[in-house]
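ok so for the tutorial part 2 we go from a plain amino acid sequence to predicted structure tokens. step 1 is just haveing the sequence, like this:
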Amino acid sequence: MRLFQIDAFADAPFTGNPAAVCLLDGAGVEEKWMQDVAAEMNLSETAFVRREDGAWSLRWFSPTVEIALCGHATLATAHALLEEGLLAAGDTAKFHTKSGVLTAKHEGELIELDFPATVAQPSPPPDGLIEALGTQPVRVSLSQFDYLVEMANEDDVRSLTPDFAMLRRIQVRGVIVTSRASTPGFDFVSRFFAPGSGIDEDPVTGSAHCALAPYWAPRLGKTAFMAYQASPRGGVLRVTLAGDRVRMAGRAVTILRGELRV
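step 2 — the prediction. this is what the tokens look like for a chain of 262 residues:
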């Protein structure tokens, strides 16, 4: 089976968020096998895609658990399909996933994802969250998957050095930390920590922006954003809130192409 490593939301190699993509052949594979492959790849997510009734079946796994929604590995999957001639230039790929039907549209140099919005509601911080982050937030909210923590400024977001052992005990997929951007050209910045899901800090997290877009829309008075995820690798996303959907666009770069023989 063909296997790729692709940097998503990246303009150049070794930036953005790396994901593995496995193009499944016609044979059925077990869930444990997919989890073992994801552990072997040891990336934040490994995507498994199979052609299904004119569309595609898509699942994502971290090194330790199956993930319900993943943006960067979906972008990486669409990029792999384009490069392999399985998706025509300018076409839209339709993926059946645990989060419903998602699409990825090829637009010039970009691939635009169409995902469900996951609105975060105000929430008291859980025990240990503020201590794990080591700083006092402006406000705390909770989405379907993650806690969303707003900080006072971009410097606070960039300088965070969380206690990952404490974060691991919080019973959510991850913690999004965000603020308005002070870097010219961007509307907001974020970071994403998910030690409980097998990755201390995710470099660029598409699914986190499903909560960030509806969070920042009323605060910034707009629905189209340029976002920067301020991890050590960094990543740029063009994000648009469209009703109960969030569209995210970015580029991808193939790093490795090979054959999975096990």
